[in-house]
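Render this sequence as a predicted structure.
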Amino acid sequence: MDANRFQFGDFTLDAPARRLACHGEPVGLGARYFDALVLLLRHPGELVTKAHFHESIWRGIPVTDEALTQCIRTLRRALGDDAANPRFIETVPKHGYRFVAPVVAEGSGRGETPPREPRETAGPRWAEVLSLGVAATAGGGAAGVVGGIVYGFASVPADGGGAALSALLVLLALNIGVALFAGAAIGFGIALVPHAGATISPWAAAGGAGGGLVAGALAKLLGLDAFRLLLGRTPGDITGAFEGGLLGLAVGAAVVVANRLSSWRRAALVAALAGGAAGIAIALLGGEMMGGSLALLADSFPGSQLRFGRLTALFGETGFGPLTRLNTGLLEGAVFALGTVGAMMLHERWWRQRA
């Protein structure tokens, strides 16, 4: 097939212009990966051998088969394809690859379906924005459950009976509520950044930072106003815009990186490392995560039943000192990022399959 313009699924490829688009939105591909896709499209339904790839794409440059494997993995990710159940690229073990979807090439008359005009879209697709934001909210809520359980059992007296159970439920509800709000703000901030096909824009990191900043600012404002209104004073400098913005930046960056990884374990590791690093940075720069905010609350109101002795003793401190803040910040950031990024990656996989 000698044509240079192709239609397959929801994608169009213009070889002379070196442009791949999904519903009219550009999908980014590296030069060699783009050439590999063109090679497959020019041989629809045919086996393209590894040797053919090496000759046509790398043109004599010595590379290992891993380079070709990474090339196909990237193409599948960009097309929203699945190696186990391929819609576009099928692996022929030990031999090469085959493009299995119907292809319509300009002027060739081949293909099983007529070409469709790309659907031009302006800005984000609202159904995807909504579902991605909801996924991040759910992931944040799951992280809140973990945090609520940990802080509940660590701070509530073991011999408190019914009062201890009530306090545990209060802390659980508080952690879940804050995490749901943060997950929603950061998730929708990321989702509102337009992206094409399976490629999430690096600007998603800025979207996450913006969403986290807004969430943190609102939570701090409303929280301090509530304490001032009900109790006449506030617990101090609780978590706010700075902490939310930094954590949102970490989550957004992790989403961008994780979306380009083929391994779920690597994606989870990236999310945990990014969130943990943000939590450590917040502690080192004098900010407060949820644990520090709860400690400020307990110190500001002598009648509070919150006691963090069992938790701080793990780090050799009698109060909520710098080591406790550093370690709880690391754990909070890692768990929150793991929950939100994991939920968003599951959403992306579901969305591609649905598409």
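Summary. The first strand starts at residue 5 and ends at 8. The chain has a mean pLDDT of 83.
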